[in-house]
Amino acid sequence: MKKNVFLMSILLPVFLAITACGSIATASVPSDSVSYELKFLLDSDQVLNQEHQLRDEYRDLLSFGDNTYQASDVIYLETPKRNFINEGWINRFRIKDSNKKKQKAKKIERTYKKRYEISGSGLEGIQSALARATADGFRPSEDEDKWEVDWGYSKMTLSISYSSSKKYNKYAQLSQFTTQDAILFAEKGMPDEDVGWKSGQWGVTKLQKAKIVGPLTFYRLDGGNWEDIDGIRVEIWSVASSTHTDYLTELSVKVKPGKDESAADVFQRAETIRTRMTGFLDQEGILMHRDSLKTTAILDAYLPSAK
Question: What is the pLDDT of residue 160?
């Protein structure tokens, strides 16, 4: 993984200054460093029809029009002891548009994600998480990673993602991967931060013990809006157990920094949208008052039997 980084003058600020009067002053996060994804878990029993898609009334309510679902296949690589997620790491492959059943090789998106829990729900907590990430050696790069705050019902998480897409000519579908092939494919794209997390070759060593979790198929509906809030997305995931299948329906809205927008301005805009969407979904009686925690639910369901 390349190590290109911005100059120190545009790195993330990592400390809060306490003014003489006791108020908190935050230095601005560079406007191109951190975005927000606001996440809302919906009541699947209410919003999904018998085909496990959004009921027409909610498609209309969220102005999805004639937009169609995009299917994506995904697998996770995790050890039986959950070595990666216990350290905040997630290793994932994804094939988009998997409903287009072509037999030729497709581009596989490899994503390696590091998460930091954020205490509280304010800008101070975000800056503290940024400080921890910077202390661990993470730096925002121009084209290799994405820094994002995932803001759910009760939790905020700083997420640093490294993604790349590459064709794997041997297979056309994720279901064809053997465990060893998946490990080798993951190893070739693993960023240095994941490889050397606890020690020189920590990531590669743990990866040798990993199992394939999946593949799972989830469905995404893009392009919704409500009032002046655009870019609404709904994802529908099914998580099966031996006795039943749970459906996780997550509505999300991305908030990206505008040009020359300060960290405080971006946060305020995200908070306002979140407050409005929470009130709207609550009024409709379809908001679940908890976080979705998709990855944890998937690992709980499938990792014990993974091969």
Answer: 94
